[in-house]
Design goal:
By secondary structure, this protein is mainly α. The chain is built from six helices and no strands.
């Protein structure tokens, strides 16, 4: 069984064609292949954005997408591709207090922010 990492190795590093893709198209996912290739470096991300993400409708089958990437991308030096995760913003005490006020007083977050700015103006005036 061929995994996504086998496809990535054949596209980026080895440049050998995997024949199984025609029989097992369910294992190959265009989106995930594009995502992993774009995490290799900034230049590969730019290439993916300019080509496959722009002209995605021309790849009617997964085999077409795979063949295009093998032929278009240059052979690259092997390196471990680190998965890039989205970082969640750290919650602060102010946002926790806003959430408590939101629930306690049944106000929207926008209203709470307006009240905060009004209180800040009143404190400055005094």
């Amino acid at each position: 069984m061929t995994t996504i990492f086998d496809y990535l190795n054949s596209i980026l590093f080895k440049k050998n064609y995997i024949e199984e893709i025609e029989s097992s198209e369910t294992q190959y996912n265009n989106f995930m292949v594009n995502r992993w290739i774009s995490m290799y470096s900034d230049s590969t991300a730019q290439i993916i954005n300019d080509t496959t993400n722009t002209y995605w409708s021309s790849f009617t089958q997964k085999v077409d997408h795979y063949k295009f990437l093998i032929n278009f991308l240059p052979k690259l030096k092997f390196k471990r591709i680190n998965y890039i995760k989205k970082h969640k913003p750290e919650s602060s005490d102010a946002s926790e207090n806003t959430c408590k006020a939101h629930v306690t007083y049944e106000l929207s977050k926008r209203e709470i922010e307006e009240y905060k700015s009004l209180l800040a103006e009143i404190q400055v005036d005094n």
